[in-house]
Design brief:
The chain is mainly beta. A 5-stranded mixed sheet has the order 3-9-8-5-6, with no helix packed on it. The chain has a 4-stranded mixed sheet with strand order 2-1-4-7, with no helix packed on it. Helices cover about 15% and strands about 35% of the residues.
Amino acid sequence: MRALLAMITASLLVLAACGGQTASAGGPISVTLTDKGVALGQSSVNAGAVTFKVKNTGTIEHELVVIKTDVAADKIKPDVDEPGKMSEEGSLGESGDLAVGESKDFTLNLTPGKYVLMCNQPGHYMVGMHVAFEVK
């Protein structure tokens, strides 16, 4: 009986631990900015407060902009007022500029839908610094 109770307790603990690692936890979402891309710890999360843990591992300054849009990650339109930048229509927030090696956490309340996470320093989007993200 003790062995059975121990097995049940262990199973419940494992299930609880796994539950904390799923998208339902709302993050945190680890984001690594390189000079040629945006890498995510996970590509989707459940709606609610989502914390982004952003680190610039590149050799130049970067930023992370969170945009809610149905437009594909590689189809964001250019900003007509700022050459080299893309439109931030639908932006819900951003990390701000991050120096080389700098990290920053920020939290946004996200609703279900499709998003694009990108660096919008001049020219950075064009070299691939964007990625699709989904909120369920």
